[in-house]
Design brief:
single chain; alpha/beta; Rossmann fold; GMP Synthetase, Chain A, domain 3; nine-stranded mixed sheet; 27 strands; about 25% strand; globular; AMP-dep_synth/lig_dom; AMP-bd_C_sf; AMP-binding protein; medium-chain fatty acid-CoA ligase activity
Length: about 500
């Protein structure tokens, strides 16, 4: 797109202090070529892994494209990861060079020998260990000739968050990135006049898959904020002239909890896509307050694109996760892999070509790859049902979040849905815990709306009136906030630890 739009703004970045930096397509390409030359000078070659440990920034974007342009492999990581977590990722990914910033240098200093001294710091290189990325870029000329690459070559390893096991490295090829750019630009009806806005961490697939690559595909612009701010989201959207956004359920709920500013409705956003559960009431309030339509979709790091999405044009049901996207076949299957009848619950499986329309596999994990990719289908581990009348798919729960109670299957999301109907409940999370008598017991956690002081017993009675006896939670814990991942997913394994600790205290 550089040849078509050399002087057009490609990336506009706003940091935490509301300082704005922008690069045209031509300027961005020049920075990428300089860093590519520097990486090549450091001995980084095709197939070498380069770990990015950066917040949302212009440098993240430049590094991403510089790494992949020379055939190396980007390994983006969460800046909230601990040194112990980073140690695993460094070793497992076989990283040869790290790009981070001064604030996080200490996480890596014990790995100097492993990295052979190859370490770039995003800031000014003030630490004794590390070289300034800014200086490196300025000192190098544009790379003149790039190595020959194949669309099947590996471009990135995106690690999924590990809760009950170590993170798995999802293998993404150059073809995957091109494919997702094409399919998502069509799905979102992007044009060169659009400007997508990334507020969620770019190390996650969301910003890469749904916004960056589609924008690049059609010659649109990208607005990036250093981090998500519920109170500033729409003000940033207006300031950065964004037209399309992407959120998860948690950020939507955070925005709704902030004091409403009617000026926020004066924005240029024509669409916000989102994932994960939001109530009907929250959907209505959000769209009415901010005058922007929402569109729920379904995807995961492994599927690359979104196998299911609500229609951009025509009727949509944002309580559903949509209908099959044009590039995917989707079906629901039982434990034996047989397709279930419409209306019945089944695991979502997605057809695709590994390394093209879905992930190539998991890095150095053949067992997990074979469990997930079977006979041309990707087994997601997510449960859903399909409405026979509308063909919309409705998310039920993660397969691992299905609770087995006295021989009955209980979807945590069903109990959460009932709790969320209570006038005092803002958000809920339900887990299953081992139980000697009934396989598992059901425990709920809720965040109350401002101004409410509702006792747990009232919430349990509320469930008794709406749920079968075996689905009613044994306990309801009132919390002020939930432990979450960097993209807002509730960390239910930490909630389980809470119950374990309570049980220990009672012994």
């Amino acid at each position: 797109m550089t040849a078509l739009f050399p002087k057009k703004a490609f990336i506009v970045f706003e940091d935490k202090n509301e300082q704005i930096l922008s690069h045209t397509y031509e300027e961005f390409s020049g920075q990428v070529r300089r860093l590519a030359s520097a990486l090549h000078g450091y001995g980084i070659r095709k197939g070498d892994k380069v770990l990015l440990h950066l917040p949302n920034s212009m440098d993240f974007m430049i590094s991403w494209f510089a790494i992949t342009s020379i055939g190396a492999v980007m390994v983006p990581t969460n800046i909230l990861s601990t040194a112990e977590e980073i140690a695993y990722l460094l070793e497992h990914s076989e990283t040869r060079l790290v790009i981070t910033e001064d604030e996080y240098v200490e996480k890596f200093t014990s790995f100097q020998s492993q990295l052979n001294g190859l370490f770039l710091s995003r800031s000014k290189g003030s630490q004794a260990y590390g070289v300034s990325l800014d200086v490196v870029i300025k000192q190098h000329e544009h790379m003149k000739a790039f190595p020959e690459l194949s669309s099947d070559d590996l471009a990135a390893i995106l690690y999924t968050s590990g809760t009950t096991s170590k993170p798995k490295g999802v293998l993404i090829t150059h073809a995957n990135y091109v494919f997702v750019g094409e399919i998502m630009s069509m799905s979102l009806r992007l044009t060169p006049e659009d400007r997508v806005m990334i507020v969620l961490p770019i190390f996650h697939g969301n910003g890469q898959y749904y916004l960056s690559m589609p924008a690049l595909t059609v010659g649109a612009s990208i607005a990036i904020t250093e981090s998500f701010s519920a109170s500033r989201y729409f003000k940033q959207a207006k300031r950065l002239e964004a037209t399309v956004g992407s959120l998860f359920a948690a950020p939507i709920k955070m925005i709704l909890k902030k004091e409403y500013d009617s000026e926020d409705a004066n924005n240029n956003l024509r669409l916000i896509v989102f994932a994960q559960s939001v109530t009907s009431e929250q959907l209505q309030i959000f769209e009415e307050r901010y005058q922007v339509p929402l569109c729920q979709l379904y995807g995961m790091t492994e599927t690359v694109g979104t196998p299911l999405i609500n229609p951009i044009n025509g009727n949509r049901d944002n309580l559903s996760i949509g209908r099959p996207n044009i590039a995917y076949n989707v079906k629901l299957v039982d434990e034996n892999g047989c397709e279930v009848e419409d209306g019945e619950e089944g695991q979502i499986v997605v057809s695709g070509i590994p390394g093209r329309t879905i992930m190539k596999g998991y890095f150095n994990n053949e067992t997990a790859t074979n469990e997930t990719l079977r006979d041309g289908w990707l087994y997601t581990g997510d449960m859903a049902r399909k409405d026979p009348a509308s063909d919309f798919f409705y998310f039920v729960d993660r397969k691992k979040d299905m609770i087995k109670r006295a021989g009955e299957n209980v979807a945590a999301s069903e109990v959460e849905s009932v709790l969320n109907q209570h006038q005092a409940v803002f958000e809920s999370a339900v887990i299953g815990m081992p139980d000697e008598m009934r396989d598992e017991s059901i425990h709920a956690f809720v965040i109350l709306k401002d101004g409410y002081d509702t006792p747990s017993e009232e919430l349990i009675d509320f469930c008794k009136n709406k749920l079968a006896k075996f689905k009613v939670p044994e306990s309801v814990q009132i919390l002020t906030e939930f432990p979450r991942t960097s993209v807002g997913k509730i960390q239910k394994h930490l909630l389980k630890n809470y119950i374990f600790e309570k049980r220990e205290e009672m012994k």
